[in-house]
Amino acid sequence: MNHTQSTLSASSALPTIVVGAGLGGLSAAIHLACQGRQVLVFEKNNLVGGKLNLVQAAGYTFDTGPSLFTMPWVIRDLFATAGRDVHDYLDLRLIEPACRYWWPDGTVFHAWQTMPQLVQEIARLSPLDVEGFFRFLAYTARIYRIVAPAFLLQPFDGLRDLLTPNLLRQGWQIDSLRSVDAAVRHFFRSPYLQQVFNRYATYNGSSPYLSPATFNVISYIEFAEGGWYVRGGMYELARALVRLAQELGIDIRTGTEVVEVLHRNQQAHGVRLSDGQSIAAATVVINADPRYAYQHLLRGQPRIATRLQRLEPSCSGFILLLGVDQIYEQLAHHTIFFSQDYPREFAAIFQKRVPAADPTVYVCATSLSDPHLAPPGHMNLFVLVNAPALTERVRWAREAPGYRDRIIQRLERMGLSDLRQHIVYEQMITPEDLQQRYHAAGGAIYGLASNTRFAAFMRPPLRAHGIQRLYFVGGGTHPGGGIPLVLLSGKAVANRIAVDWPLYHNGSM
To answer: What is the pLDDT of residue 146?
Structure first.
């Protein structure tokens, strides 16, 4: 037993409670258990994973959340912290091409992960942009070198944490004064390539025409470290984390909803379950959207709840799960069918807050990499369209059938001939469903949008304001949404608790 473990054993027999078993919550639980803490996880749904989830029906298996995995070193480090080798739990594979892009005029672009092939593809589409691509990589690498140590890889409680001498000296190089789109147009002449590189702003649910150019770092991460898939489906990642958690003695209780975080004298001391039972805790970690938590789980915090409600949510999504009895050669593992007017699409979503009339359509067909995920000769199509967070303007119960038909028609026009006749299984998931299933405020997939210069630094911090022993983890807090970032969030919050723990017991906090 190490020093930390002996100190913990002597100081408290109460568990740390994690509310929610999304990837951030599972990551936090694992890191906390590795510190020697007793950890108890409550998940309201019957399956862990949060938005990374799955549907199995009629012989098809669909991942219903994240479909691409970047920064693989994050998951390797998580397992290494527990003394395990991730390759004993997961089979990570590069997908080639990373994505196939289609435009309405029939133009196609393959985003190869092998650099020589990618450069040849750029040259085929726009020879003059090859040099611009390499300049773009150097530019985004510089942003990564500045931002990663201060923002991605460290616990973060607000903008003040970024005011380091290094960032103050080099801050101008992170390019926060112009938009993603403005920077992309500086490096690329081809409108096709501009659209490809603008798309990366959607990885955190934002608009390329509003979010600061700093977020071009997202494309650098994918090009430098690859876009990965987990053999067997992305949900295998959740299964692997549960297996590791159980090996570490973490108690995970699914189908058990927390309805209140108990606190008195400005200290969290437990949770209340939907059956009325109260469970005492040494600390509480909430793996849910902080906007939901402050409104529904934390009584007596109206000021913070009101402030969070004023912040701009990320986009939501409209999803179709389609089991089809046809193999469509137009599709790769990841395929994007771009809209004709990208600026108009994002204006609809973020300014008018209505579904885009001509949306970009993303299709993921994991059965191309894992044939057993669909019956022979069939495909499992996960179809996603960016949609606005919930407002009074859109009633999805009324809008969804017509929007579904519009998307199917669009895919048929793009070469998926007679798609509607080949659908043998179908399920729709609307922003309202996302809000209800995952307590995602407004159905927002990524928590808050990053459409202003300081939005990324306005996320609710890991340590809750005004209540000691209470923390947040996941896409709604630092450093943001997406698989690697929520896993890093789990590590960061565990490190924050380790630093705070002695202060709680000597009265300094």
So the answer is: 87
Residue 380 tokens, joined: 């499992």
**SS3 of 68-88:** CECCHHHHHHHHHHCCCCHHH
Q: Assess whether the previous peptide bond of 97 is cis (omega < 30° from 0).
A: yes
329 CB neighbour count, 10 Å cutoff = 7
CA gyration radius for the chain? 23
The CATH superfamily holding the domain 51-113+226-232+315-445 is Guanine Nucleotide Dissociation Inhibitor, domain 2 (3.30.519.10)
Indicate the CATH number for domain 3-46+254-309+453-506: 3.50.50.60
Peptide bond into 479 cis (omega under 30): yes
Residue type, 153: L
* Residue entry with tokens 């995952």: 438
462 vs 460: CA distance, rounded Å: 7
| Identity of the residue numbered 363 | V
Contact present, 308 and 290 (Cβ < 8 Å):
yes
pLDDT tens per residue, range 281-316: 999 999 999 999 999 999 888 888 888 888 899 999
Q: Is the dihedral of CA 480, 484, 314, 442 positive or negative?
A: negative
Q: Quick one: pLDDT at residue 458?
A: 74
pLDDT < 70 positions in the chain: 1-12, 154-172, 505-509
- Output the six-digit token pair for 273: 């379950």
State the pTM of this model.
0.93
The residues spanned by each domain of the chain are 3-46+254-309+453-506, 51-113+226-232+315-445, 116-225
Sign of the Cα pseudo-torsion (151, 154, 157, 159, in order): negative
What totals of helices (H) and strands (E) does the chain contain, helices first? 17, 19
